[in-house]
Write a structure and sequence with these properties.
Shape: elongated
Number of strands: 8
Strand content: 5-15%
Largest sheet: 4 strands, antiparallel
Structural class: alpha+beta
Strand order of the largest sheet: 1-8-3-6
Order of helices and strands: HHHHHHHHHEEEEEEHEEHHHHHHHHHH
Number of domains: 2
Radius of gyration: 31 Å
Distance between the termini: 27 Å
Number of helices: 20
């Protein structure tokens, strides 16, 4: 499709769109040109320090940051699609490369760049680099949460009573569960007491005793509570005093939900409230097993794990704090990973101020600004000092300048296929960054309106490209 459009375009337009790809005759690098390429790459990356300062100094709303990020993302998509992918492909065709081969070089380069970014990003996050992006930090916290609760979900799945609760709502329960143990002969609660908790029995057995008028001690034993039962929920549901005394007859292992947490739970999830009211009528294992539709443990556990998609207040900060805010070296390397592709493209495509198309530079600047604002806040909550944050982000300007200089010094003199492939690989890495980090962050914080903001960024960037086409055409 790109080639059809290119061949149908006027010669002047084709020349303008392909302007960013330098001809072999212009491949001899000069010190001044290299220095200017380095400066432009540094300018594009300078927004990370500006964004970090804004994020640490002012409290911009999440929606504002999201919309700025969406605008920059739209501009980047235009720069990658029109100025990089289309222009590079057309330059290859004009250089005598067959259409299919030209497309294969660019498409293959984009795919390779995306794969490199994808796996590198996973590796960096694994070693503590998640704190550099809010979306990465959230994903990392969610992975930690799922891994940390895997054993608990397995325990819950073996409880037939708990499996009557909807597994899609189990994420509401997990924060309120507390492990507890009772020795043989120890009371869980006594008849007439105010209810303070409900208990999910993992191991052991308990006796239920009723103290009648004139009876001494704990009363007569009327029933038994075994592993797989729950006990104590009826008084919490009905807001009445304990109707019985429950005593551990063996060593007992259980999980409990305190009264206050129980009240929060049933307010948070009406489905849990409805299920617990039913449990109050059928709270022993035998009666639960008579009910139809109870899932087996494996199915229930799988659904519960899949439904774990919420992060409660403080869980991101808690996860990062447990890892001392992440690994500074990993975060620094991750930031470099984000910065290198765009800087290389700026350097490789710069042949002079008169022919330079600023679309990619502007797009990178705008995209980095809100991401740095949000990331600086995430890193501060993770325990980083302002000096360390500025140091990590500020070093990117220097790295970007080096990459811009290297790209300008070496890539233009390479064979046309090699230059095109390098630009496409860098473009693929940028596109993966947009898809994995920028779009999810923008939509999560900004909602549906970011779709329009993204179109706005795309349109403005496309207008800059159109101006460049008109300028060359005249």
């Amino acid at each position: 499709m790109l080639i059809i459009l290119a061949n149908a375009a006027a010669p002047e337009v084709t020349q303008a769109v392909a302007q960013h790809a330098p001809a072999a005759a212009e491949s001899v690098a000069t010190v001044g040109r290299i220095a200017m390429a380095a400066l432009l790459a540094a300018i594009a990356m300078s927004s990370v320090v500006i964004g970090a300062w804004l994020g640490l100094t002012f409290k911009a709303s999440d929606k504002t940051i999201a919309n700025i990020l969406a605008f920059g993302s739209g501009a980047l998509v235009n720069a990658l699609a029109v100025d990089l992918a289309f222009g590079t492909t057309q330059h290859l065709v004009n250089s005598g490369i067959p259409n299919v081969k030209a497309w294969s070089i660019v498409a293959g380069g984009f795919l390779a760049g995306g794969l490199i970014y994808y796996y590198s990003n996973i590796l960096v996050d694994k070693f503590g680099g998640a704190a550099r992006h809010k979306t990465n930090a959230r994903r990392h916290a969610m992975e930690e949460k799922r891994a940390g609760h895997a054993g608990l979900l397995e325990r819950l799945s073996k409880n037939a009573v708990i499996r009557t609760l909807p597994p899609t709502e189990i994420d509401h329960i997990l924060p309120y569960l507390r492990d507890c143990k009772f020795e043989s002969g120890q009371e869980l609660f006594r008849q007439g007491m105010e209810p303070e908790a409900m208990y999910i029995i993992d191991e052991g057995s308990l006796g239920v005793f009723l103290h009648g008028a004139g009876e001494s001690g704990i009363g007569r034993r009327i029933s038994e509570v075994k592993a797989g039962d729950i006990v104590g929920e009826m008084a919490l549901v009905s807001h009445t005093v304990r109707a019985n005394t429950v005593v551990a007859e063996t060593n007992v292992s259980a999980m409990k939900i305190d009264k206050d947490d129980f009240e929060h739970l049933i307010k948070d999830s009406p489905k849990i409230r409805e299920a617990i009211l039913k449990l109050a009528e059928h709270h022993t294992l035998e009666s639960i097993q008579k009910q139809a539709g109870v899932m087996d443990s494996a199915e229930w556990e799988e659904m519960a794990a899949a439904s774990m998609k919420r992060l409660h207040a403080g869980e991101i900060q808690q996860t990062l704090s447990e890892h001392e805010g992440g690994n500074p070296l990993a975060i620094w390397i991750g930031n470099i990973l984000d910065a290198i592709p765009g800087s290389l493209v700026i350097g490789a495509t710069f042949m002079g101020i008169s022919t330079f198309n600023p679309t990619l530079l502007v797009a990178i600047f705008l995209a980095n600004l809100p991401e740095a604002m949000a990331s600086a806040n995430t890193m501060r909550h993770a325990g980083y000092s302002n000096a360390k944050i500025y140091g990590l982000w500020g070093s990117l300007i220097f790295i970007a300048a080096i990459c811009g200089a290297v790209g300008n010094a070496f890539l233009p003199s390479a064979p046309v296929e090699v230059l095109a492939l390098c630009e496409a690989v860098s473009g693929g890495a940028i596109l993966a960054l947009v898809a994995q980090v920028m779009f999810p962050h923008a939509y999560e914080e900004g909602g549906d309106v970011v779709g329009l903001t993204t179109i706005g960024g795309f349109s403005v960037a496309f207008f800059l490209t159109a101006l460049e086409i008109a300028r060359v055409a005249h």
